[in-house]
């Protein structure tokens, strides 16, 4: 076929129904619903989105709300000394940082000399003083700023308008910071509803809302759920316009959206994976339209180093220089998937906001037992998903590296962090390691998948394993166990081989020895083996935290086997 003929060749447009029919056929009898993923927000994610899936009317408020496509690189300083804070801040400005970020939850002991230097910097760079206590001496910095320079100071001071000195008209002091709710387990819908409810609590009428609009800011933590986090930030812009209209405002002024990379999925284990998480979160925050972004170092939970702080800053610089997203307003706009997701978040968040209002508003709701119970429920859902490996924390609940650096305890406490329960088990078993044996029957190609699975499963709790060679008979297994004297045994073989060896094996081993089997079996077989001394099973979907707790209780309690018991194991003749 000639090139001209190829260019003139056309194809009939395919419909969604035709695509769905082919997709269903490829599932080989499984329902199409198997391709649909339900999020913790109660939103169904489909494998394909088309123009019919999304209405693009939400584009207008999102694009109008962003005055510039660029964002402010606002890196934090991780020191407790005022002089170090100033020195590190000045160095960071030379290397790409663009703002002064101070976290009042980790206060610095300020002196007059440092405050004077900070005041000079505050005139040149935007300031973001977050979670400020009224007793924090950083507030004294404003005493060192001349009257003629007060209007030059821009940014956020999270302390409340009545606590802020007069004259700083470009400082916002009233905000909705939902980072704590996020880390405790809140979903995107809840975060958005809380932000809007907090704004409504601060404005009783149109005039009050107009005044609030000039003082308000929002702050989100952005997690690794890439598309959901993009949609979350975009949805806020739409919700803010809806709230403004509800108060009778025709002119909708944008409020700054402050973001930070979430620490909910950070881990002290294999911390370099946190760098990947930070990059993922940072990119989604930028695509979602963040005005200000803080990227936390990958080792922020232990103690950041100069290298990790530089890498965190460079994450933003690489995105800024290499992707050109800083040249585009709403770069995610027009994606059928993201537009549809944004629309669903807006609808669900507004509905939740109305429910909060009906319960007395933001202040009453966050103090209610209902709110705490709901957040706790969401956290338990997230933790259960991680424990059962429905969702992955690389290096924590999957692909754990027991040969890496020694385990480190977190010096920064983040309530609700999902990796923390695994870290506690890793530390416990590192200090008191049981002797665990994987007893494998058959050929390597037959038992290796299950042996690798069990080894990986136990490694996420910090438990190291030793495997037998290819065993053909129960006699070989009993002799190996008698020689090695393990504390805990997991039998790994095909279903057929396991059914052959389990009963005679259980009859020949000490009753005090903890024995598990890899895989799931019929209720009848399971009951029979457990009656003969089997402890339990290890399989995909098993709650890892519950299993580790069971092993730890046995190991620290009376689960250790008296080594004399192994001498009672009898060599037997068996046909396998």
TrEMBL record:
Superkingdom: Bacteria
Record-annotated Methylmalonyl-CoA mutase alpha/beta chain catalytic domain positions: 170-403
Organism annotation: Sporosarcina ureilytica
One annotated Gene Ontology cellular component of this protein: cytoplasm
SUPFAM superfamilies reported for this sequence: Cobalamin (vitamin B12)-dependent enzymes
Entry protein name: Methylmalonyl-CoA mutase alpha/beta chain catalytic domain-containing protein
GO biological process: propionate metabolic process, methylmalonyl pathway
Classification via InterPro entries: Cbl-dep_enz_cat, MeMalonylCoA_mutase_a/b_cat
UniProt-recorded Gene Ontology molecular function terms: cobalamin binding; methylmalonyl-CoA mutase activity
Upper taxonomic lineage: Bacteria, Bacillati, Bacillota, Bacilli, Bacillales
